[in-house]
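Record type: ASSEMBLY
Status: queued
Input:
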Amino acid sequence: MGDLERLPVGILGASGYGGVQLVRLLMDHPGVEVVYLGGDSSAGKSFSELYPHLGHRVDLIVESIDVEEIAKRCKAVFLSLPTGLAYQMAPALVAKGCKVLDLSADYRFSNLETYKNWYGGDRQDQEIAATAVYGLPELYRDRIAEAQLVGCAGCYVTTSLLALAPLLKQGLIVPETAIIDAKSGTSGGGRVAKTNLLLAEADNSIAPYAVAHHRHIPEIEQICSDLAGHDVMVQFTPHLIPMVRGILATVYATLRDPGLVREDLVTIYSAFYRASPFIRVLPAGTYPQTKWACGTNVCYIGVEVDARTGRVIVMSATDNLIKGQSGQAIQCLNIMMGWEETLGLPQLGFYP
Amino acid sequence: MGDLERLPVGILGASGYGGVQLVRLLMDHPGVEVVYLGGDSSAGKSFSELYPHLGHRVDLIVESIDVEEIAKRCKAVFLSLPTGLAYQMAPALVAKGCKVLDLSADYRFSNLETYKNWYGGDRQDQEIAATAVYGLPELYRDRIAEAQLVGCAGCYVTTSLLALAPLLKQGLIVPETAIIDAKSGTSGGGRVAKTNLLLAEADNSIAPYAVAHHRHIPEIEQICSDLAGHDVMVQFTPHLIPMVRGILATVYATLRDPGLVREDLVTIYSAFYRASPFIRVLPAGTYPQTKWACGTNVCYIGVEVDARTGRVIVMSATDNLIKGQSGQAIQCLNIMMGWEETLGLPQLGFYP
Amino acid sequence: MGDLERLPVGILGASGYGGVQLVRLLMDHPGVEVVYLGGDSSAGKSFSELYPHLGHRVDLIVESIDVEEIAKRCKAVFLSLPTGLAYQMAPALVAKGCKVLDLSADYRFSNLETYKNWYGGDRQDQEIAATAVYGLPELYRDRIAEAQLVGCAGCYVTTSLLALAPLLKQGLIVPETAIIDAKSGTSGGGRVAKTNLLLAEADNSIAPYAVAHHRHIPEIEQICSDLAGHDVMVQFTPHLIPMVRGILATVYATLRDPGLVREDLVTIYSAFYRASPFIRVLPAGTYPQTKWACGTNVCYIGVEVDARTGRVIVMSATDNLIKGQSGQAIQCLNIMMGWEETLGLPQLGFYP
Amino acid sequence: MGDLERLPVGILGASGYGGVQLVRLLMDHPGVEVVYLGGDSSAGKSFSELYPHLGHRVDLIVESIDVEEIAKRCKAVFLSLPTGLAYQMAPALVAKGCKVLDLSADYRFSNLETYKNWYGGDRQDQEIAATAVYGLPELYRDRIAEAQLVGCAGCYVTTSLLALAPLLKQGLIVPETAIIDAKSGTSGGGRVAKTNLLLAEADNSIAPYAVAHHRHIPEIEQICSDLAGHDVMVQFTPHLIPMVRGILATVYATLRDPGLVREDLVTIYSAFYRASPFIRVLPAGTYPQTKWACGTNVCYIGVEVDARTGRVIVMSATDNLIKGQSGQAIQCLNIMMGWEETLGLPQLGFYP
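Status: finished
Output:
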């Protein structure tokens, strides 16, 4: 990117975990320059007061959110805000020519009624929303390349869909048998002080929650249905586990063809993700663990077949705050800009 | 127990995690006196050298294993040894009149062929093995009361079966749809130095293992088949999670009667476990977490129904080293002795 | 206690970590019956709603705080409230004849000016405060036995003082060289949602805080001065470490007599704590770890001498929520009632 | 580095934690190419079998160690072997013209007698050893630039010395009052299966070890003496804490000039480390935590003065496997090669 001018970008909601990942990643991204950090409760504070560990490299001040001003200074804007705020700003930013990458649920639904059923709110932005593209590059790369507004896929959904997509797209499973048992570190809850996310409460324990009623279910089903070509209903159970970062999805489904062995499926997955630099399909017999993905934008996928029960078990692991959030958004921006998809995104984790 | 003489008991394999739980629990048990600790590599060492935190209360020396001597001094013996050793000692101990509680897999199988397929070994103890009772009190209380030799159920199996039993026994589910997604703390691997169980490796990560091939599968299926009255095949996937103690089983199955709601199932479970003091069926809408069970012999069970998919989701949580191991064995002994089932067993955990 | 009537006790601040420890411990205490739980924000809720894991044994409702009513129903009252509230209730409770055990800082200072300098507030209870005894049984057992009002020593202070007391009392060290480097699990912060105590923030990190300015310093110095017989000033640095329960204090001081070896000091410590059932002085060469103390009222102490530097290093480990809080209060009550000091208090931890 | 040829480098001991950090970091280093991985027990295995998470980028095979062959293929060699092996290989590698960076203790001592007292062994390499430079760039940058053989400073020592150096160099403290209370994550123990480093043992606990006798003491004192210009003796106590990566050193010392305030010291530290890009001196009142340093080569330093006691308290935090090991070695190589000191080394950590 040596001679090119860097793209001026802004981050709204810079004080949260999504924000700090974006700042961290974009500081090392050769194509962009972070020129604006916006926040609400943290407006007026220096970013290094919020995150002292970045103080030697970041000297930006968090500013209050002013859409006019943002559009003047930024060519691309990341919205890392709680669900329900993005749709109040995105239309104006889009109208002024900004590329908008929303990390919340606001622009993930093709049907706004579904959104309203699960999240409420009074949506008056149908027209803009209709132009939004679902931000999961491995499945919608071409459409993202053309988009101005992207509703980036979230952590649980990304991890689940990357495991399921080849099976559904190629009709290998009985869709209604799909069960997703997902396990997440607690950073998914954000930098918000909640009692159940205290170390004292969450450490040395594992807890299921929102069983049968998690609001990521409609989002998963929307994309599964798109992949399968007909309505698909899945079972999804999230669990909180005692670690900071990482999601593992263990996915079960009944194979249509009981003669398939795991080596077949490794081949199928490898082919399906051939052009996807952030998907690492593991060799037969190797299963992923979340630590491998930690600090990277990579999704590790392992596949097993149980010949006794006729089921495939797919295991996928991501860093919920990178491939599941900020890294995904940057990957989308790279595609929107016509840049190398991997630009500025870590592919190698530290271990242990 | 005030006026009774205490029962002299021995523990073989005292240096492992099973052994130290037994020592810890039996020190506070009013009906027994620990008179013998046996070990192999630790023979000759004082127990407080192995576990200094118990030094103010335990002054026993670990002795080498001598069956004659053990039978002379003990009326009941806990075998907390690696699988494959108990069947070399139990016959002699039984012959000399000892009650024997084996914590390994050696006496869990009604069909020794199944044992040999999964664990190998040359079993010459068919006759004695045929008298062994499966040590899961909530399901086989009456038979345990009559037994001299008990093959105590292990941690994964106990947690899984307590979740599944009411469903299978009462024919509420389609058995072949049962999927058990289990998550365990790393103490289940024992006090054995293995690289993958190092804190540096296992912390901040979750990893599936032995997918579709774990050797607890035949044991789970044996009991499920017994409960259902016909052969049952289940899916079982264990995961290692970054905590010391605790197992959570998340069990999925398709209901035969789609009209059942979770309140019905809470009622059914409560009735099924009415006489079981260590089962705590949670109110509708409350799901268990492993920390609650930590340090107790209690199994917490939560039930949910997904009306959309027609599935029941049962979640059960135990302390893998107590209800899943040492506490279970003591519970069996209490029953064998005609004592109160809860004698000397903790029912209340510390929190957080 | 078989034939005696149980002492009716109340707990104010039942919803916090101190409260739930007290409930948990007192349920198994043969001398008392919990007849009253008081709280503010949680008034009206059933206790098992706050802590579902105790639901099978505890069916009390948290009531709003009414001193008249409490005094009518309870003979002893535990005040497990934030500092600054106890002194508004204790005088009335004492006047009505209740024994009062305060777990906050309100009654720990012999000089109320010191209290006001560090905690503020308008103290009008000088007369009652003057009757309060400092609740650290190993040092003030006799006075506690006579007291009606006890200001129980807190977690950092207890752990630090038990390490330092023999050295100061017997004039073995140069007092002004004493440095206490203390490390605590995060449960010390209470069941209050604070960002820095989130698992996502506090896990996999260690952080010093309140360096040179922690408000436990005056409390430590007050007792050190009492032990030494003259004013003593110490260095105290607390650290937050990524675990739930436990405090380790590593204490450094220069020996007056450079000829002392660690075996001498083990002898001196053992003698000093001869009558203290909850102090476990470790053999020479063995150092404590916090896990040993977890779930018990025991303080483990290890001693080392560095002949090169002329310093003694004393390491003490406790469970901050038991010996450092609730267990200590119960130990005080046992003494006040003339009961066995160990009654109802755990002496053996689970491991691992 | 675009047009330059990459420097061919080798790593001996590639299978350990030091090795995998080096591989990970050097894959992203623009100046080098990893052409050789050497190991003993892992010889013949593909590196991605040992560390599957790097399999999409690393396709090297671990080879058996053959010094001739290594010298032929590599211009620089990292020795990441257990102490006692490097001195058997380094002389030959140096003789053949390789630059050698040893991560063990073998080349850290200017006096080989000290080495032999603490580590044993039969050293015949006095001549070569005398040319070795101590690999702590912030203190010995100029000498490293001229060196062919560097004995890189280890994790505890680096973290301790970076905290102490400005005080000793400028004569601000009474040297014999220096006490270092150090806390390390368990990865410092290496990828070696030891019982006390199991998650089940080490999690939720903190334990001091090697009190007054740790073998890093002579190494710390050697450099402290060099800085002070006379023999210095320090107190050093290591602790194992329940986390994977990171070291915090809390350093206490009595100030010579009691009038100094913390702001003075922040100024002094900032000046001292002005040319050191990996030292981040924190603003007054901010203290470091290890998580900030995680995944970076940065050392964060916070300074506090206790006017009451006349002591300075310095807190320093590093990632033990990067600034304390592999990153330090790469930093040394950068200097030896005349490259930018920060080349290929991460300066920004992920948070949380």
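Annotation: The mean pLDDT of chain D is 96.
Annotation: The domain at 156-320 of chain D is CATH 3.30.360.10 (Dihydrodipicolinate Reductase; domain 2).
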